[in-house]
Design brief:
The complex is a heterodimer of chains A (237) and B (250). By secondary structure, chain A is of the alpha/beta class. Chain A has helices at residues 43-50, 73-77, 95-106, 111-122, 138-150, 168-183, 195-198, 225-235, and strands spanning 4-14, 17-28, 31-36, 58-65, 68-69, 80-83, 156-160, 187-191, 204-209, 212-218. The longest helix of chain A is centred in the C-terminal third of the chain and has 16 residues, at 168-183. By secondary structure, chain B is an all-alpha fold. Chain B is 79% helix and 2% strand. The chains are: A alpha/beta (237), B mainly alpha (250).
């Protein structure tokens, strides 16, 4: 179980370009944090650092479970689920084969049943499951990518534009999945420009601009669309 | 920074030796099996590698000719080892570039690195799949060299097999490191042979000298080069496992 992801003084430079400039943020379990900001604000880089794939130039990220901070490496990666811009799926493998492959890497027990259950949950039709992913539409790919991110029952969910390519049904299903993850006590961070879809479920809001945290707020009842829109325009534009 | 190799060693030393080894090997196997499954379904790398290597052998066999004992024109058997290994190395370069290109599509390399599987296991899985593809190509090329150059490659089957396996393993491991390193560079297709071949020169010389020794009946000389390949491969496997993680993390 993880209680919080604590980010302190996070800075990232790529050469001379500063992408993140001393970001402080605390993501708590059981809350959905929407990370908003214009293009180039540093959102994807922050996600990259949280997912352990990008090394920060300065600052630190600690994953806290009770009094202890989790170590790095495989122990940490085992509890993180990432849905990124790219699907991380092999076009030459079927949806089921992709999930079974990743299940082996994550050492998921009863992988076949888990894969089928997740494909049911994300709404991929049974007849599509044994077709190569390269034949899928963008929305179908996104559904399988979501199933891949949830495969190992992660305690920290990092999602970068998860609604891309999803139709209304897919978007609603995704939001239900996120709500369920929040109820199970997961740390959920979503980067998105789709404020409408995030309305009601977002209880923690962070707005980045030019690598700096411009605004942070909480709402136990969940931010409404109007609130999200207004805060975004006030702090990000 | 603590490397994955350090982590693996620590985990093995902590008591779960058997479980750790089994888990590590499972990850290697999963990775290799995934690559081979994708390849055997599309066959785009294997066919291109095999066709390219076969064409090289055939063309070389017609380019370098001499007069045989009975006055007929035959290919020069003495230079067969060189052409065998040139064909293998060039075709392997084609394959390794494409094998890592696949991990760029949909950014699957990132997906792999996000998993808790030891990164060294992911690397070894890639190297194993490349090794298998190269071995399949060699299964075509070696008989072709034997046929077109009339080179007695099967006269000493055991040392020949060991030599081929060690040289292939070396190319697969070193090639995988450099292909991974260049994965995110734009000119990777051009850069790969430029950076890879100088490193492979000692391996290449050992493979040719060893094969020549076997063809000339100098088995002792061949075993010397086989031992050289063993040491060379071992050194590069350790170096590759040690550096792979830092090469692929931003």
């Amino acid at each position: 179980m993880i209680d919080a992801v604590v980010i302190r003084g996070l800075t990232k430079r790529f050469g001379t370009q500063r992408v993140l400039a001393g970001v402080d943020l605390e993501l708590r379990a059981g809350r959905l944090c929407a990370l908003l900001g214009p293009n180039g604000a540093g959102k994807s880089t922050l996600l990259g650092i949280l997912s352990t794939l990008v090394r920060p130039t300065a600052g630190e990220v600690s994953f806290r479970a009770g009094d202890r901070a989790l170590g790095g490496g495989g122990e940490l990666r085992r509890i993180i689920g990432v849905l990124a811009h790219d699907s991380f799926l092999y076009g030459g493998l079927t949806a089921v084969e992709n999930l079974l492959f990743y299940a082996r890497l994550y050492e998921v027990a009863d992988a076949e049943a888990r894969a089928e259950a997740l494909l049911d949950e994300v709404g991929l039709e049974p007849e599509a499951r044994h077709r190569p992913v390269r034949t899928f539409s963008r929305g179908m790919v996104q559904r399988v990518a979501l199933a891949r991110a949830l495969l190992h029952d992660p305690r920290v969910l990092l999602l970068d534009e998860p609604l891309t390519g999803l139709d209304r049904g897919g978007a609603a299903s995704l939001v239900r999945t996120l709500e369920s993850a929040v109820r199970r006590g997961c740390v959920v961070l979503v980067v998105s420009h789709d404020l409408e879809a995030l309305a009601g479920v977002t209880t923690h809001l962070a707005i980045l601009r030019r690598g700096r945290l411009q605004h942070e707020g909480h709402s136990a009842a969940g931010f409404s669309y109007q609130e999200l829109k207004e805060l975004y325009h006030r702090h990000a534009d | 920074m603590r490397t994955e190799l350090g982590g693996v060693v620590a985990a093995l030393g902590a008591g779960g030796v058997q479980r750790g080894r089994v888990s590590f090997l499972r990850h290697v196997a999963a990775m290799a099996w995934k690559d081979l499954r994708v390849e055997l379904r599309s066959r785009e790398i294997l066919f291109n590698m095999a066709f390219f290597a076969a064409m090289m052998v055939v063309l070389f066999s017609f380019a370098f000719l001499k007069e045989g004992r009975d006055g007929e024109v035959v290919a020069v058997a003495e230079i067969a080892p060189g052409f065998l290994w040139v064909a293998v190395l060039f075709s392997a370069t084609l394959g390794m570039a494409r094998a890592f290109d696949r991990e760029r599509e949909a950014d699957t390399m990132r997906g792999l690195l996000l998993s808790p599987a030891p990164r060294t296991a992911l690397f070894l899985g890639k190297a194993v799949s490349l090794f298998v593809l190269m071995a399949m190509v060699e299964a075509v090329v070696v008989p072709l060299v034997w046929f077109f150059f009339a080179a007695p490659l099967f006269a000493e089957p055991l040392p020949m097999a060991v030599l081929v396996l060690l040289a292939t393993a070396g190319v697969a491991v070193i090639g995988s490191v450099f292909a991974a390193m260049l994965m995110r560079t734009r000119a990777r297709d051009i850069l790969l042979p430029v950076v890879l071949y100088p490193i492979l020169v000692p391996l290449f010389i050992a493979a040719i000298k060893g094969t020549s020794g076997l063809l000339g009946g100098q088995t002792e000389q061949a075993w010397f080069w086989i031992r050289f390949l063993l040491v060379y491969d071992a050194a590069f496997v350790v170096a590759a496992l040690w550096t792979f993680e830092s090469l692929v993390i931003e």
